[in-house]
## 1
Amino acid sequence: MTGNPAIIRNVEALRRHTADWRKAGLAYAVVPTMGAIHEGHQELVRQGRQHASRVIATVFVNPKQFAAHEDLAKYPRDEPGDVAKLGAAGADVVFMPAPEEVYPQGFSTTVSLTGPAKAGLEDRFRPHFFAGVATVVAKLFLQTGADVAMFGEKDYQQLMVVTRMVRDLDIPIRVIGVPTVREADGLAKSSRNVYLSAAERRQALAIYASLSRAADAIRAGQTPQGAARAAARSLTASGFKVDYVAARNAGTLAPPRGKDEPLRLLAAAWAGKTRLIDNIAVQSSR
Ligand code: AMP
């Protein structure tokens, strides 16, 4: 079904809606987003429909995952556009709570994380980010009671953090990672791409290109650390301010130790005032 999704703004109404689905024996998926919906989010909704009979997309720009200096106030918002795009992709419900609904007066509880959340990647540059993400995601899982949750590999560390949290807290939901949706030239689709000037947009290609070269180099026998360092140098040469390029264990995000572990290459870099992140798998050569 693709059409007009129901717009729900409070948890009570959401629970009434999902109770009907439960009674009818329907499994449902949740797709958490911050809005500014693009093809990447729409793919999560479509994949959600492959794994469940109904899909709830959530749109909430979570103040707790932005630091004071970050772009909370100017984060792109377009409610009618978001609802139309989520509906077109097949969402049955768009849950759009107000901040007061999510964080009532006196809110005092936060999910505390180690492991992949402290891998020294995003967490090094955004120290409060994953606690904010995990807290709101745990709430969304409890509010929706969904059977499956769709997350993009685009935010790979986030996917690992949420997967770990669900396991550690026995939250009865299956977390499914969806491969990154890219522009034709390889740039990962992102709500933040609208901030890029024409020149920065051209420059931005270098991220995926340099990660792909590094993955090839590792497959050809270069050390993961050496390949990551070369990718960082090439990004700097393309005009980026590099936060990190790293090769990590694909599951734990710990630095690689042996020869035969699955690896992920992850990068974050600034094109002008816009911070871009991307990552790719390094398939083993065997
Ligand atoms: P956001 O609202 O951008 O924070 O992202 C909401 C969800 O969409 C997260 O699970 C992201 O990983 C996912 N997502 C964002 N961009 C993409 C993309 N290009 N491809 C696949 N998933 C994405």
## 2
Amino acid sequence: MHSNQPEISDETDRKVVLITGASSGIGEAVARRLAREGHHVVAGGRRIERLQSIAGRTAESASRSGGTFHPVRLDVTDRADVNAFVEGAVERAGRVDVFVNNAGIMPLSRLDSLLVDEWDQMIDVNVRGLLYGIAATLPHFTAQGRGHFVTIASIGAHQVVPTGAVYSGTKYAAWAITEGLRQESDPAIRITTISPGVVVSELANSITESGAAEAMRTYRAHAIGPDVIARAVSYALAQPADVDVNEIVVRPTRQR
Ligand code: NDP
């Protein structure tokens, strides 16, 4: 039930943070850390039961610092869903301070495998989903005169390896779109791109091509924990309002 009064007061150090793909891996770690740090987190993903379970496990540590964790069912490939995600948060909290574009999939394969449906899915989630998040949030940031976009790109936004052509294509696109957003935006809107190296998560589970899956098992042997990326997000958010952390690359020391 909603009254006209937002449930969350206008405290600048406690941010209203929307995170896509918060049901596992990096997004879950970011959502949990920020809620524990006292922020008001709206956590989106398709697997609502998992989000509700994470919310249950995070509630106590979040409430100790005044933070909250609100799970919302979200499919980033559905523009109406993304709009409802943002509008619901604005209705509840009165504003949106940070939008973390994190949802992503990585079904790696060689181009000659012609897994065209998987190419489409990557483009839909990693590129269209990112754009829908920007489209739904940017008008609020412009009206508020402040806001912060965080894009979780990838090392794959900086280099291409065999089986990674389409995935890297989507991550180069995510990097370029976010950089274009930075150049065009009102200076009061902050823009951060974070490019993780290999991080423990469920990301490689979407690979269906056996050769790519096997190569990933070796490649991912030195993966670092997802909270490392959550700390990078926290760092970017915690800077003074006139400081814009634009780019962070975080990878395992053993990843070349
Ligand atoms: P996970 O697979 O653990 O998490 C991916 C998240 O994206 C899940 O919460 C999933 O939620 C969500 N998601 C997928 N499709 C959709 C959709 N259509 N709508 C909404 N949410 C969706 O992987 P990671 O945590 O590793 O991935 C997070 C981001 O980090 C991705 O953008 C990935 O490319 C990037 N990254 C990861 C690296 C790594 O090594 N782990 C390295 C570099 C970048 P649900 O299924 O519930 O919808």
## 3
Amino acid sequence: MDDNVLLVEKKEGYRVLTLNRPEKLNSFNVDLHEALRAALNEVASDEDCRAVLITGSGRGFCAGQDLGDRDFSDSDEDPDLGATIDAWYNPLVRQIKALDMPVVCAVNGVAAGAGANIALACDVVLAAKSARFIQAFVKIGLVPDSGGTWSLTHLLGEARAKGLALTAMPLMAEQAEQWGMIWKAIDDDDLMAEAQKMMEGFARAPTVSLGLAKKAIHRAATNTFSEQLDLERDLQREAGSSLDYREGVSAFLEKRKPEFTGKRNS
Ligand code: LHQ
């Protein structure tokens, strides 16, 4: 395995994961999948890690699957793309969704195919104004994957989801922000500084409550209003037993800044 395909930086309270195959626009091969999975597993088991930032090196964020690995011109057999998705892409986006802490994506350049949809699976998407999102799949005879059909439909509604998926039209970051597909488009030169600032905030945040809020918002996609009210009650009960709730209320009453630890009360 090539150890360099993912750069992992341990910062105070958070991790920065940089996809690092810039000559291939950080497209995914098995080495990159393995490295990212291992890094996310490590994050999940590290008590001191309270947020994750995913970005790319060079001029692109990620161009999806490395198509160099997919040349089957010499083979008569049909490739089983479902197996690739089961082995790598679906576990990856599930892992991002399931992490009980914020996952921020800083889209530093083009995000195409699965690269675009992995970004959309993250909790907060920041993008350089020069970045574009491309549902490139139809250009090679495929369908959007990595949750793209779900994310686009939920974020944008059917008309825009279909427009993007069926035409592969590039969507610039500022338009993506106006449409509500991402949180914020940022001047290229300021992207990483803004992302870093957000991460420093998350590293000092009441992590339990952030993780629970993320969970509740995910469930809202399928719950009825009434089911969601019950879920909020249960999650509030859980949040209410965290040390950070005690600290938040004490700090408010004592008119001082809270010092959240991100730890559970157990
Ligand atoms: C690449 C790639 C790439 C290899 C740029 N692979 N080298 C799931 C399950 C199983 C199988 C299939 O896939 C999936 C999910 C998917 O993600 S399917 C979608 C795969 N991705 C694409 O179809 C996107 C392909 N790339 C592009 O259309 C363009 O490169 C974009 C629009 C992303 C960027 O265009 P440009 O800015 O003009 O850059 P470029 O095309 O010149 O690329 C720069 C280099 O990166 C170039 O290499 P070279 O040696 O000529 O400089 C490209 O060949 C390489 N590259 N994407 N996916």
## 4
Amino acid sequence: MSVKIFDTPEVQQFLRAVANLDGQGGDPRTKQIVHRLMSDLFKAIDDLDITPDEYWTGIAWLNELGTAGQAGLISPGLGVDHFIDLRLDAVDEQLGVENRTPRTIEGPLYVAGAPVEHGFARLDDGSDESGHPLVMQGTVYDAEGKPAPGAQVEVWHCDTRGFYSHFDPTGKQAPFNMRRTIIADEQGRYRFRSIVPSGYGVPPGSPTEKLLTALGRHGQRPAHIHFFISADGHRKLTTQINLAHDPLVNDDFAHATRDGLVCEVVERTDEASIKAHGMDGPFGEINFDFHLTALVDGVDNQINERRVRAAA
Ligand code: DHB
Ligand code: FE
């Protein structure tokens, strides 16, 4: 039997009381958001006739999610991270800002404080023996299309098992393995050596995976490499590249793949290339340039404090 009580004056007044909309104190913006979100939840319970048992199943899942520290893991899976990117794109369109290098989600696995290198860095410590060597290089360009010497390239990726250092359930990786900050050289160029990462999967048996399974979805990402690119006078670019050879390149549970960010890994087997990069044998090569955008009215209008909060 379905009942509808959402639109009654009693329930509407109750929602205002829940968020203390008509009372003193508190933070007005928080009150506004909580009022809206609770109203949307009440309406969904009413419209979909969500049963008490369904509701308490959801609460148990939220507790499990929080205990596992996975709110940041399910968020991209449910598309919120990508939706926020689409909104930032729309704001830029309104401002007339062109992003020659598209933004895409940060994901939950960045760690601040990686070693800083100039021009070139080796990201992996050689311990992932099944890793195929990789060289990635390119130029960071400023908003005028000129190379940006001194630009900062923060890069992080997972190993061939799909595990990131600092989040490796086997505890095998040293801190900051496959994480570096590279300062672009006089020509705005950066270059690094690492291994070709594999795809990533959400932790098996986790609350994140359980919800995706209930939706008939998988929790896999194609192989990818994350970046923050920054330079004086420019907005920080959050992006990643996705590797074209991965069968899931267009089936990413985190919805991060975008046109302009899919890269071929070109196999180099000739002696000249091997020597030029100081490699010991065949390796994969990715060439990719980053284009930054100028500050808007002197400020980065899209920066967020997620990193500051995570460090606190
Ligand atoms: C998730 C993991 C990633 O490596 C990533 O880039 C994005 C999302 C996740 O577990 O949600
Ligand atoms: Fe990732």
